[in-house]
Amino acid sequence: MQYYSLQHQAPNVSFKEAVLKGQAPDKGLYFPTELPKLPADFIKNLATISKEEVGYTVMRPYVGEDMTDQELKRIVAETVNFDFPLVKINDQIASLELFHGPTYAFKDVGARFMSRCLGHFHKNENKKTTILVATSGDTGGAVANGFLGVEGVEVIILYPSGKVSPIQELQLTTCGKNITALEIEGSFDDCQAIVKQAFMDQDLKEAYQLTSANSINVGRWLPQQLYYFYGLQQWQQQQPPVICVPSGNFGNICAGILAHISGLPVQHFIAACNVNDTVPVFMQTGNYQPKASTPTISNAMDVGNPSNFGRILEIFGGEAEKLKTRFSSVSITDDQTKATIKEVYGGTGYLLDPHGAVAYRALADYQQQNPSQKGFILETAHPVKFPDVIESLLDIQIPLPEGATALNSQDKVSVKLAADFDSVKNWLLGR
Ligand SMILES: Cc1ncc(COP(=O)(O)O)c(C=O)c1O
Ligand SMILES: N[C@@H](CCOP(=O)(O)O)C(=O)O
């Protein structure tokens, strides 16, 4: 498989080169030259196939010749060694829980897959790779955990000061070793813009072999397809599901659409956003207008200029009208999110985190108009990551999982920097 730049001003590259570069030299995102079709038998028999075999079969065409079958099987098996249960909330809506990995959010699969790919690619290289990654909450922790101790790789995480939850912050600031956290006095969009600019900067390119571990990197983005296959393995209705994805940078839902194009039956995709509504507005008006992000209680989705929407449009040949046949996007306020957490917990006992609650509200509203269409949400983070929101709303205490208890006794270590490219560049060149 080759990858081309969505800016069309850079040469095509292999999977390995795309992972090592992160972003194309013309600032475009890499996109696969072919969208593989999976065998009809594979889809028909999905429920009987192991999650390791599903992962291997889905990822095989994307990885191409850069890895042996044996190596890819090992990487997939190590990546997906936890559960992805589809849990019924009520007769209309189920929840695909993606928070059973080590950092309690859906980012673990992509981060673990990519870290193992880089570890493999580094076996025969002696030049160190430096990963620059921007986080609005969960990517940072997952990448820190996934890359901790990986030979030949160091990770520098940029996160918006005061805009991530306490557990999220501890997850990304307490690892030490090859992981460094930069606390940026700005928003996630500032962090992401700085990272993207760094990849284009000649001085930094001379000093470092830089790549990204955000979903702009195909090694982080593509394995997110697996969730959708794991969800369908457990889906027991006749009709394919409507799948509603809490969305910020749109990497997750974009991976789901790719899975669908490869043959996975899905009725409709809903991208559920908080008030950061760049995509919902585009779907209504045709006008794509990135804007400064607004802080919300679903903080990991506070993104004003989502990186992956361009990839979604590319799948549909750039035609918004075609996209509308499979995809819609809505914006949910914090008040609606809070009311949904209360309503669902009170009515069913199911505890949603704020991101899952945004998705639940969007899917329930969609089903008001389409009552025969059942579906599931992607529950992208464990509610324990947002105790302030949940506990004040429901007057309950969420028991901390074991790993999270240990975090509380550790001290945050971060470097505070202004939200401008030069501050980060000077820090990188001066260390
Ligand atoms: C808990 C949670 N939900 C949803 C999202 C949004 O996912 P995406 O950026 O892939 O749209 C994120 C961040 O990526 C997240 O951490
Ligand atoms: N919500 C993310 C933001 C970055 O998204 P990514 O999928 O592009 O890494 C976060 O939690 O950091």
Automatic annotation (TrEMBL):
Q: State the PROSITE patterns in the record.
A: DEHYDRATASE_SER_THR
GO biological process entries: threonine biosynthetic process
Pathway involvement of the protein, from the record: Amino-acid biosynthesis; L-threonine biosynthesis; L-threonine from L-aspartate: step 5/5
- Residue ranges of coiled coil: none
| Pfam families on file | PALP, Thr_synth_N
Q: Which reaction does it catalyse?
A: O-phospho-L-homoserine + H2O = L-threonine + phosphate
State any single GO MF term: pyridoxal phosphate binding
Listed A to Z, the keywords are:
Amino-acid biosynthesis, Lyase, Pyridoxal phosphate, Threonine biosynthesis
What are the Threonine synthase N-terminal domain coordinates in residue numbering? 2-79
Segments forming domain Tryptophan synthase beta chain-like PALP = 96-370
Cofactor dependence is on:
pyridoxal 5'-phosphate
Q: What is its EC number?
A: 4.2.3.1
Carrying N6-(pyridoxal phosphate)lysine, the residues are K107
Protein family membership: Belongs to the threonine synthase family.
- Matches recorded under PANTHER family: THREONINE SYNTHASE FAMILY MEMBER, THREONINE SYNTHASE-LIKE 2
Please report the name of this protein according to its UniProt entry: Threonine synthase
What is the protein's species of origin? Arachidicoccus rhizosphaerae
